[in-house]
Each structure stands twice: as structure tokens, then as C-alpha cells.
């Protein structure tokens, strides 16, 4: 039992590290779109790892925590995508170093046809 608690603690710690890196990415990235990507990817993985670690540490909670992890895995990327599209359509500019805008290219391609 003590081995499971130690493993759960280390997995939860790894999740916390990813959550910290996601927060750091939000602070360091140059524009809304990069911040959203850094935050979404890192926080999704960090939250899932933290919940899995807690589930291993407390096996009685595992079912509920896995259900929460599935909910996070579905809703976090979906909501981030919707927010990024809303930001794009409202005219939030890309960072100066951005190479291309595929969404704008697809919109212009659809208008020309």
C-alpha cells in the first residue's frame, strides 16, 4: 500500500510540474494564440496526471477522478479551440514573428471560389 501512495504522490507531483509549466508558458508567450496553446496542452496533461496521482494515492476516489479526467480531456481542448476562433474572428492580431495564419488563408480561399 505504501508503494501505491508513493507512486501516486510522484504522479501528482509530475502533474503539478506540468501545471506550473503551463502557467509559465502563459506568462512568456507573445500573443493570445500561443498562450492559449501553451496553457491548454500543459494544463490538460497536468490536470490528468494530478487526478491520476490522487486516484492512485486514494484508490476509493479513482473512479470519480477518472471521470473528471475524461471530462477535462474532452472540454479543455474544445473550449480552447472555440476561444481561439472567437479571438481570431474578433480581430485579435498574431504576434509579429508568426509565420502564417491558416484560418485566414482558408477563409480567403473560400471567398475566391
Describe the structure.
With 113 residues, the chain is mainly α. It has one domain: Helix Hairpins (Orthogonal Bundle), CATH 1.10.287. The protein is 81% helix and 0% strand. It is elongated.
CATH architecture: Orthogonal Bundle
Number of helices: 4
Average pLDDT number? 88
Distance between the termini: 65 Å
The CATH class name reads Mainly Alpha
- Percent range for β-strand residues: under 5%
Helix content: over 70%
The CATH topology turns out to be Helix Hairpins
Shape: elongated
Number of domains: 1
Order of helices and strands: HHHH
Q: Outline the low-pLDDT stretches.
A: none
Q: Class by helix and strand content?
A: mainly alpha
Keywords:
single chain; 113 residues; mainly alpha; Helix Hairpins; 81% helix
Short description:
The chain has helices at about 1-30, 30-55, 60-90, 100-110. The protein has about 110 residues and is an all-alpha fold. Helix 1 runs antiparallel to helix 2 (about 30-55) and helix 2 packs antiparallel against helix 3 (about 60-90).
What is the topology?
Blueprint: H1 2-28, H2 32-57, H3 62-89, H4 102-112
Helix pairs in contact: 1-2, 2-3
Amino acid at each position: 500500500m505504501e508503494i501505491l501512495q508513493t507512486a501516486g504522490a510522484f504522479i501528482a507531483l509530475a502533474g503539478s510540474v506540468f501545471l506550473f509549466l503551463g502557467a509559465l508558458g502563459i506568462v512568456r508567450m507573445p500573443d493570445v494564440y500561443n498562450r492559449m496553446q501553451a496553457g491548454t496542452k500543459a494544463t490538460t496533461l497536468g490536470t490528468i496526471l494530478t487526478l491520476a496521482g490522487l486516484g492512485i494515492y486514494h484508490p476509493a476516489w479513482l473512479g470519480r477522478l477518472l471521470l473528471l479526467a475524461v471530462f477535462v480531456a474532452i472540454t479543455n481542448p474544445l473550449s480552447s479551440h472555440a476561444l481561439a476562433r472567437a479571438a481570431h474572428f474578433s480581430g485579435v492580431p498574431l504576434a509579429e514573428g508568426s509565420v502564417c495564419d491558416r484560418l485566414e488563408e482558408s477563409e480567403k480561399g473560400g471567398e475566391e471560389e
